[in-house]
Design a protein that fits this description.
Elements: E1 3-7, H1 24-35, E2 40-42, H2 71-76, H3 82-87, H4 99-117, H5 125-131, H6 133-148, H7 159-162, H8 166-175, H9 177-203, E3 207-212, H10 221-225, E4 240-244, E5 254-259, H11 263-268, H12 272-284, E6 287-290, E7 298-303, E8 313-316, H13 320-330, E9 335-337, H14 345-354, E10 358-361, E11 383-386, H15 395-401, H16 404-414, H17 421-434, E12 439-443, H18 444-447, H19 477-489, H20 503-515
Helix pairs in contact: 4-9, 5-6, 6-9, 9-20, 12-13, 15-17
């Protein structure tokens, strides 16, 4: 079935308090998607951000990002006062997320809300803790101990903590009880607000495409609490780390530093941790984009301690066995395989064997060869086509920065000689929408014809990424009408589904709508 959607990180929404979150603006964005005739909203990973503020370097693969908790909802719940939130400094630029100020000023507000909450906790709080104990207990202790260690990575902690000696951890649980409860509160509020929001998206006919990184961060509760899952030595230090080999763009390759999986152990457990990870993500989202899919076939292993990726070697990943385990435990799930970059025939075969749709990026189609596999005539139905992703330039930025040859080739291919950026960008979107691919996803920046000032991420750089935001009232009904028209022309409007009949969901949906 043909469909389309829009890519926009939650953090990129406009909001009153410094970063996009589960506020009224998120509900408004869902309404905009519905008005535009869209089926999907693609977001980035929703975990708590770590190094470089990247959602792909999270402190937990199961936890939610506390920054996404709506402060207005906490005001409505009587846990914060409006004047307290208004007094906090989150920066003065509505187009920018100031992570430094966010870190310094949002957590004190959440801490204040937490203290008021525990004077009389919700009835559902205890159930949430029990239902999520398999990851939440380790995450709460990890974050509390990390805070007590000045924010240092667990690899730098004293051996008693790093090696998780039981008697030491029990003492820490008692000592850091208040900090652990604060972490629990953050997660409870995130998932409480997300559940309410997700009910609303379903009611409006919008499906959420989530994003799951292949690797986890070395500084995470996942690695600290589950060292057996990773390639660690007897002292629980990495024996090898992730990256990618040297190529025409980087003589030294890329040294990412993420710990590698112990696939032999994971296979013995029928990939239980990975199955649980995917299951958890699909409880939050409707479809899951799995990043760096090629590593399920082969992954690049670099000796720990190396300063470059030059000495790395390709090693075999779990292959189709992991996805057999996923199907056995979860049935058929909706997954998008991110198979971009250097792809071998064995990776292609794995994607084909899983049956999952692959990704096609239109910006990659126009190169000097004029024979790219990403050209629309080389695409297949079982694929998701993008004008660009969060790692790409915006289409306007690409139009302005690419070579004359590639720009002219794109114009010739589109049979459009638009010299203005706006005409070119909308022609580019039209090319993606018209493609044979079952699904088309367009970043919101492209519909707004934004330049690279609105770029989300410059790979292999830190300090300036993940910061761009929409400004209030930037998404108009006129824009929604234009998107709807193009979606309709290319047969991608959603087919109405049978309304929910479950009384509880209907009631919750009404509550969610009333929050707006």
């Amino acid at each position: 079935m043909r469909s389309s959607g829009i890519l926009c990180p939650i953090s990129s929404l406009s909001s009153r308090y410094g970063i996009g979150c589960l506020s009224k603006e998120a509900y408004d964005f869902v309404d905009f998607l519905k008005e535009s005739g869209q089926t999907y909203w693609q977001i980035l990973p929703f975990g708590p951000t770590g190094f470089g503020d990247s959602p792909y370097q999270s402190f937990s693969t199961f936890a939610g990002n506390p920054y996404f908790i709506c402060l207005e909802s906490l005001i409505d719940d009587g846990l914060l006062k409006k004047e307290e939130c208004d007094a906090a400094d989150f920066g003065n630029d509505p187009k920018d997320v100031d992570y430094g100020k966010l870190y310094m000023n949002r957590y004190p507000l959440l801490k204040l809300a937490s203290e008021r909450f525990f004077e009389k906790p919700d009835e559902e709080y205890a159930s949430f803790i029990n239902e999520n104990a398999d990851w939440l207990e380790d995450y709460g202790l990890y974050m509390a101990v990390k805070q007590d260690n000045g924010g240092r990575s667990w690899l730098e902690w004293e051996d008693d903590f790093r090696l998780r000696k039981p008697e030491v951890l029990e003492k820490e649980k008692e000592k850091l009880g208040d900090e652990i409860k604060f972490v629990y509160f953050q997660q409870y509020m995130f998932f409480k607000q997300w559940k309410k929001f997700h009910i609303y998206t379903k009611k409006q006919g919008i499906k959420i495409i989530g994003d799951i990184p292949f690797y986890v961060a070395s500084d995470s509760a996942d690695t600290w609490a589950n060292p057996e899952l990773f390639q660690f030595d007897a002292d629980r230090m990495p024996s090898a780390v992730a990256g990618c080999p040297p190529d025409a763009f980087s003589a030294d390759g890329q040294l990412w530093g993420n710990p590698l999986y112990n696939w032999d152990y994971l296979k013995e457990t029928r990939y239980e941790w990975w199955v649980r990870r995917i299951s958890h993500a699909l409880e939050i989202c409707d479809v899951l984009r799995v990043d760096h899919f090629r590593a399920f076939d082969e992954y690049y292993s670099i000796p720990y301690g190396d300063k470059t990726a030059v000495n790395g070697k390709w090693k075999k990943g779990p292959g189709i066995g992991l996805f057999h385990a996923v199907r056995e435990k979860l049935g058929e799930v909706q997954i998008i395989a991110e198979d971009l970059g250097y792809i071998t025939e064995s990776v292609r075969e794995l994607v084909k064997e899983t049956g999952y749709p692959s990704m096609k990026v239109l910006q990659f189609a126009f190169d000097g060869s004029e024979k790219s596999e990403y050209l629309p005539y080389n695409c297949t139905k079982n694929a998701v086509i993008y004008t660009g992703t969060h790692d790409n330039e915006t289409t306007r930025g690409w139009f302005e920065d690419t070579s004359d040859h590639d720009r002219d080739f794109a114009r010739r291919y589109m049979n459009s000689m638009h010299s203005d950026a706006g005409g070119f960008v909308w022609g580019f979107i039209r090319l993606a929408q018209a493609s044979v691919c079952d699904t088309c996803i367009v970043p919101i920046q492209d519909y707004l014809v934004k330049g690279n000032e609105a770029r989300i991420n410059f790979p292999s750089t830190t300090g300036t990424n993940w910061r761009w935001r929409l400004v209030p009232n930037e998404l108009s009904s006129a824009l929604a009408a234009s998107i709807f028209d193009m979606t309709q022309v290319y047969g991608r409007l959603p087919v109405p589904e049978t309304p929910e009949t479950d009384e509880d969901e209907a009631e919750s949906g009404s509550e969610a709508e009333s929050e707006k």
